[in-house]
Structures are given as structure tokens and as C-alpha cells.
Amino acid sequence: MIYKFFLLKRQLEDLLILPFIWIGRKLKVQLIDVNPFDILLLFSSYHIGGAEKVHLQIARALKGRKALVVFTKKSTAAVYKQEFIETGHQILDISKFTDNKIQYWNNLIFRGAVASLVENQKSKVIVFNGQSNFGYKLSPWLNKSIVQIELIHAFCSFSWIRIPFLSFYQKTIMISNRSIAEHKTQYQKIGVPEHEVGKIMYLPNGIPLPKLMETKEIDSVKLKVLYVGRATAEKRVHLVAAIARSASLEGIPCAFSMVGDVQNTIPKDDQSYVHFYGAINNAETLNTIYAEHDVLIMTSLHEGFPLTIMEGMASGCIILSTPVGDIPYHVHHKKNGYLFSSTTDENKIVEEGLMYLKQIMEKLDLFKEMSNNNLTYAKKEFDLSIFEHRYQTIFDQLK
Q1: What are residue 123's phi and psi, to 5 degrees?
Q2: Structural domain boundaries of the chain?
């Protein structure tokens, strides 16, 4: 069985790194000096990204509790660092030790140091792993009485990294129904014991809703289309630019804009068809931008359920997206948005993008109905207070 092979491989690795764990336990005081804590939050980084934003929301939900937030991977920018500090939790960045391939032994030593730190707290600590590679490698070295929780944002590389460590976690939080189904299929294929499925719980993300949530009145002169996000390969932002170019050449009255550090990934010939806001970190500014646009577009090859879809719906935007991840669970074709018929045929995505933009312009009454449907749905499903209450309840129950 593949699962048993994963376990054997991990057990052999554990034997090899045991001396480093022992050194880390002995050097704990010299390596890490923090105040007492009840919760350990293990996150990779604090640069911009949907996962990082969710991690910040979790830290905020636990405000007032004695938590230690540990960052284990080097951040490319300090976008959310100050906001993590403002949660009032202790902040510890060990990435210079745990994310250094040249001095990888430090990663091994810090597994022992952090394990010792957790076990020596006066009160029992809950360890929360927000998709941190170091967090998984730490999990076998913690006392079995320590409660460990993991969060998985989507079916991705971590879905395989975590397999040898499943038995150390009491709860597995997943944010999308599609992700749960994909992980169950994976478990079945590689022989993961059935009881591990029972640990999975569905807990969707939430967002702070805009103060002003009004049905949009579309400008019949020009449709305003927005992309918000990163420019990583799976986002395929070049398709958004291609739709913008084609719309302009066909005389469809649209204005395309992008939020995020994406401009350099767009072909130069297409850049003139898009307005680039750059990276926007201020929530009020971002909400204003959403409010000024009519359509939120996403052409991703795969997703979980991105925050930007929630934010767009909460601002009354019509969603135009590939049917990936949990998006089809929330965006229903011609009810509150439009879903492309293909996720892989890029030419078809561009072709259908133009078709749907024309339909929106031609059916202004339907646009208003869709906008109102999204506002109603967002109020019911995405309110951040619901998300915060769910996380607070989980920690209370496990404590």
C-alpha cells in the first residue's frame, strides 16, 4: 500500500534526524525565548496571498487568547506583518533557520526546540498548522497528549506532504467541498485508513462585509471588469488580458482593471488594454475598487474557494469564472454569474468571455437581479463573524 510506504519512509527519516531533535530539545532556551502561551499558530509567511489573509483572520478570531504565531518560511514582503502584530499575539519568525537549504540542519534542530517549548508550557497547548511544511515535520515530535489541528486550503502539494503525518492530527479543517471530495478520493486510492476521513471538517472562509452593500446600477456606456489576485501560473491572468484585448478589437464597451502585482506577467502587446492598480493592501481602498466595478473575472486552472470571489459577491459584482474548486457551489450560471464551459481550453475561455460580456450589456435588468442575488448570498454565507465564531468554538471544544 502506498500509504504504508509513506509511513515507513517517515519512520526511517525520524531515526536519522533523532540526534538533531535531541540537540534542539537541549538548546530550547538558547534558541527560543517567549512568554507563556496556550495556542501555537504555525504559518508559512506573512506576504500577500489568499491563504495568508485567512491565517490573519484566524489570528484575529483568537484575539485575547495567549497565542504564539510562528512563521516558518521566508516572506517575500512584509504586507501582513504589522497586522499580525496588531492581533496582540506574540510573533516569532524562525524562517532564517527553518527555510535555509544550505544550513538545513537548523530546520531539524528547531523541530526539537519547538517541541520542547510546547511541552514545557504550564497549560496544555493546542497546535494549529496552517499549511506549514515545518509544522508537519514537527508533528511526530510532540507529545501525544498535545492536540494538533491542520488547515488545508485546497488539494495541492501539501495534500501529499501531510500524508505521513495524518495520525498526529485530531482535526483536519478544509475550506471547500471540492477539496474534501478530492482528498477522500486520494485517501481511497493510496490506502489511508477510513478513520482519517472522519477527522475532516468543513469550515468555509469568511470576509469582513463592506459597510455599504447596494445593488449595482450598471453603466450602459461601459462595463467595468476587474481581476484581483496574484499572477501565479494557475491564475492564468494572461487570459484576462486576452479577453480585454479581444473586447476592445470587437468594439465591446468594456474597461478592464487588475489589482495585484501582475503587470509584468502580462504580454506587452496586451498591457495597454488593462488598467493596473498594483498591489492594494488597504481593505477600504480595495472595497472602493470592487464597488466601482461591475464584473469580477477569474480564469484560474484550479482553486479552492478564493476570497476574491467572496469579496466580489459582497460588493454586488457579477462573477465570470472558470468552474473550478468550490466556485460552482456558490456561483450558479445565469443566476449570479457566468461559468465558462471549460477550464483547459483557453481559446474557448476567451471566446465565451466575450459572449458573456455582450450578454451582460444586453440584459441590464438581469444584471441588476444577479447583483442583488450576490449581495443577499454574501450576507448569509460569508460574514466574517460566522467564520470567527466557528474557529473560537473549535478551540474551546478542543481545550
Answers
A1: -105, 155
A2: 2-206+384-398, 223-381
